[in-house]
Design goal:
Helices cover about 45% and strands about 15% of the residues. It has helices at about 1-35, 65-80, 100-110, 125-135, 150-160, 180-200; strands at about 35-40, 50-55, 55-60, 60, 85-90, 115-120, 140-145, 165-170.
Length: about 230
């Protein structure tokens, strides 16, 4: 009987410990990051770079999530909150290209100047975006423009990697459905836990490479074959 009880008790204790660990990590990251998150553009401190993290794009368009991030980033430039734009996303496959699609949208609808747009083609995750911003693009301070659910993780990762980063909560051009928000929150809960350990163990990104300073020539980061 004792062995039978232990068979159920031990796994239960492990699950309970994991649950409390995930709760702690989420609370800790939220408390750590919240003072660096801004909703009001006027209150946003000036930084040199504004980062647009990648998200879903389509063959000839971008998702609402990306559109909001572009709009927020361009407003940062217009209001002189930043001088350079770093677009970071997934361009690991020939037929799927977040960074160029985001860049084309920003140029088509916002007439963004080529000279200020840098592109990170290997920003496969938020962690990799921040790591490469530091090590490839020599970014030391930045504004990250993203949705509310994502701001905490962006700030936490960046600042733990030594970057002076704040987040600007991108205004919603179209309101999202509650079920969409709930889905994001659930996914983000576990993504924060993963990011916590990536930072702890200083995990290396998929790719590094030669430095392309954000203060230099933006075209050095462009895919000229695109």
């Amino acid at each position: 009987m004792k062995k039978s009880k232990l068979f159920f008790i031990i796994p239960g204790l492990i699950v309970l410990a994991f649950f409390f660990l995930t709760v702690f990590i989420n609370l800790y990251m939220t408390m750590y990051s919240k003072k660096f998150i801004y909703k009001n553009l006027d209150e946003l401190p000036q930084k040199y770079t504004v980062i647009i993290p990648g998200a879903r794009v389509y063959e000839n368009n971008v998702s609402h999530v990306v559109r909001d991030r572009i709009d927020g980033a361009v407003n940062c430039i217009v209001q002189k909150k930043a001088e350079r734009i770093l677009i970071s996303g997934d361009h690991g496959r020939k037929k799927y290209d977040e960074v160029n699609q985001i860049r084309r949208y920003a140029q088509k609808y916002y007439n963004v100047d080529d000279d200020i747009v840098f592109m990170d083609h290997a920003g496969f995750s938020t962690y990799e975006t921040m790591y490469r911003a530091r090590d490839i693009f020599c970014v030391d301070n930045a504004i990250v423009v993203t949705q509310k659910f994502h701001t905490v993780r962006c700030v936490y990762i960046a600042r733990k990697l030594g970057l002076d980063v704040v987040a600007y909560e991108a205004p919603e051009l179209v309101k999202y459905a509650e079920r969409t928000r709930t889905s994001w929150d659930i996914r983000e809960y576990f993504a924060r836990v993963k990011s916590f350990f990536l930072v702890m163990f200083n995990a290396k990104p998929t790719y590094l490479g030669e430095k392309i300073p954000i203060t230099g020539d933006s075209k050095a980061s462009w895919d000229m074959l695109e």
